[in-house]
Amino acid sequence: MNRHLECSVAACRSSDLKLKGFKVHEITGPAYASLSYGRRDCYKIVLATGDMNICYGDKTIDINDTFLFFGNPHIPYSTEHRSPEQKGYACLFTEEFIDSRERKESLLNASIFRIDGIPVIPVSSEQATFIEGLYQRMLSVYSGDYERKDEMLRSCIDLIIHEALRIQPQHGLKQRNAAARITCLFTDLLEKQFPIENTADPLRLRTAQDFADGLAVHVNYLNRSVKEITGKPISVHIAERITTEAKALLQHTNWSIADIAYALGFEYPSYFNNYFKRVAGITPNSFRKDKGKV
C-alpha cells in the first residue's frame, strides 16, 4: 500500500504539490525508523498497514493493523516504526486545493482533523478494500488527462473523510452534556485563531473573559465547565496554545521576536519575553537559537 509517512512529507514539499495542490501515491518499501516531530505544509490522508506509534499533538497512539491517518498541517506529529516495512496509500493536499469556503469548513474542521479529535481510525478488511478502491481511482485520475480531474479528486477526498467519520469508534466519544458542549465551543473558538498567518492580523482572544464574551456566557460558568471536562482552567489552555504557536513561529518563520510578540497580542516584546519564559522555561531568543533559527 504505502511508502511511509516520511515519503508523504517529501511528496508534500515537492514542486508538483506546490503547483497543483494535490498528490497521491502508493506506499511500498522499507519503513523509516522515525519521523521528526513538527508541522507540515499540507493535509494528509494515509491508508496503511504497519506496527508503529504516532505522536500527534499531545496524544500517543499505538497502531498494529490497518488504519487511516489524518494529518493536519497545523498540528505537530511524529512516527516511530516497529515493523521493517509499511504498505498503503497516501494523498496530500493544500487548503487551497479544497475548493470552496463551505467545503473547507465542513471537511477540514471535521473531528478527525481537529486537535481534540482522533486522527487514527482502525479499518476492517472490507472497509480497507473500499478505501483502497478510492485511492486507486485517484491514482488513475491523477495520472490521466481528464479536464475536470481536480473536481473528481476532491470528491474522492470527500468520500474517504465521510467514510472515516462513519466508522470512527464511538466509545471514544464523550457524552455531550452542557459542560462538554460549552467546552467544545471554547476549544473551537480557541483553535480558530490559529495558525497566525501574518503580523497584521494579531490574536484577539487572549483571556477567559474574551472567550466568555465571545460565547455569550458568564466567565465563571465557562471556566468551571472547561475545568470539569478537561481538568485544567481556561487560563492554562490559553497559555499552552499561545506558547505552542509561539514556538512554531519562532522555529518556522523568520519573523522578528517583536513581530511575533505583536502577532500574539502582546503590547510590548518584553511582555512576551517574560510570558514565554514563565511558561516554557526559556527565553524566545534562546529557544530559537536551540532550534537553529537565528
Automatic annotation (TrEMBL):
<keyword id="KW-0238">DNA-binding</keyword>
<keyword id="KW-0805">Transcription regulation</keyword>
<dbReference type="GO" id="GO:0003700">
    <property type="term" value="F:DNA-binding transcription factor activity"/>
</dbReference>
<dbReference type="Pfam" id="PF12833">
    <property type="entry name" value="HTH_18"/>
</dbReference>
<keyword id="KW-0804">Transcription</keyword>
<dbReference type="InterPro" id="IPR009057">
    <property type="entry name" value="Homeodomain-like_sf"/>
</dbReference>
<dbReference type="InterPro" id="IPR020449">
    <property type="entry name" value="Tscrpt_reg_AraC-type_HTH"/>
</dbReference>
<feature type="domain" description="HTH araC/xylS-type">
    <location>
        <begin position="197"/>
        <end position="290"/>
    </location>
</feature>
<dbReference type="GO" id="GO:0043565">
    <property type="term" value="F:sequence-specific DNA binding"/>
</dbReference>
<dbReference type="InterPro" id="IPR018060">
    <property type="entry name" value="HTH_AraC"/>
</dbReference>
<protein>
    <submittedName>
        <fullName>AraC-like DNA-binding protein</fullName>
    </submittedName>
</protein>
